[in-house]
Design brief:
InterPro entries: Cupin_1 (IPR006045), Dynactin-associated (IPR053297), RmlC-like_jellyroll (IPR014710), RmlC_Cupin_sf (IPR011051). The protein is α+β, with helices and mostly antiparallel strands. 21% of the residues lie in helices and 27% in strands.
């Protein structure tokens, strides 16, 4: 089972190998592929009633005798592959975040991860993927991304998502297994686990650069306490009660 994300502002357009083949005139395909039997062999191919990209033939075991592959060298594989489950864990109060990330100059990445990071940055409107695990009653605090849309898929557990808009309107909704969520760039949002089971999501960020994120505890503590005193009509000393945000 694969979970797929696509970056496009248009309706997704896909051309499968079999569709391309059957859209090509028989004589052109025969001259291009040069099979034994020529055009007569090309004519033995019949278009299936169902899309083979989704529905495999029921007699697949009879058709395929050998499906082995030789693993390519790391310098080629890691342009397209990332071992997310085996990557570094970033723990926060309430959960764990693992991320197939782009980093400027490869900071904090091992040699194979650097290959993947460099490959990401070569492509416009690329994606970076992450897994987010929030423990029962844990919170992924309000935050927003300066330079990326975010899309997520709920793998397990259940939770509550919130979107906080600049107009002061907050939208809350429950999420469960199989649900897809979307937060546009610059939209402040949060996630909370509300089941006994951990809330586990796969997240995709659309950015061709290093992801820039600002969390509530970061911008709140980063604001001078005398400014906060004016905003909230509280004594300046009261804001010493907020702990510094951890990195």
């Amino acid at each position: 089972v694969f979970l797929l994300f696509f970056t496009t502002h248009e309706e997704l357009q896909t051309l499968d190998v079999d569709d391309a083949f059957f859209s090509t005139p028989e004589d052109i395909a025969a001259r291009a592929l040069k099979p034994e039997g020529g055009v007569n062999f090309i004519r033995t191919f019949k278009k299936q009633a169902e899309d083979q990209a989704i529905n495999l033939p029921p007699n697949l075991d009879e058709l395929v005798q050998n499906a082995t592959y030789v693993q390519s060298p790391d310098n080629l594989v890691w342009r397209y592959f990332y071992n997310l489950k085996g990557s570094a864990e970033y723990r926060f109060p309430g959960g764990i975040f693992q991320w197939a990330r782009y980093r400027k100059n490869g900071t904090g990445l091992n040699e194979t991860e650097k290959i993947f990071s460099e490959s990401l940055h070569k492509h416009e409107n690329t994606l970076t993927l992450a897994t987010l695990r929030i423990v029962s009653n844990g919170l992924g605090q309000p935050h927003f991304h300066f330079n990326a849309n975010e899309m997520g898929y709920v793998m397990s557990g259940c939770g509550q998502a919130g979107v906080i808009l600049s107009s002061g309107v907050t939208t809350n909704f429950n999420i469960g297994i199989g649900d897809v969520i979307f937060f546009p760039v610059g939209t402040q949002h949060y996630l909370k686990s509300i089941c006994e089971e951990d809330l586990l999501l796969i997240l995709a960020y659309s950015t061709g650069n290093e992801l820039e994120t600002l969390r509530m505890n970061g911008y709140f503590h980063g604001t001078a306490d005398h400014i906060l005193a004016q905003l909230f009509s509280k004594e300046q000393s009261e804001f010493k009660k907020f702990p510094k945000a951890a990195k």
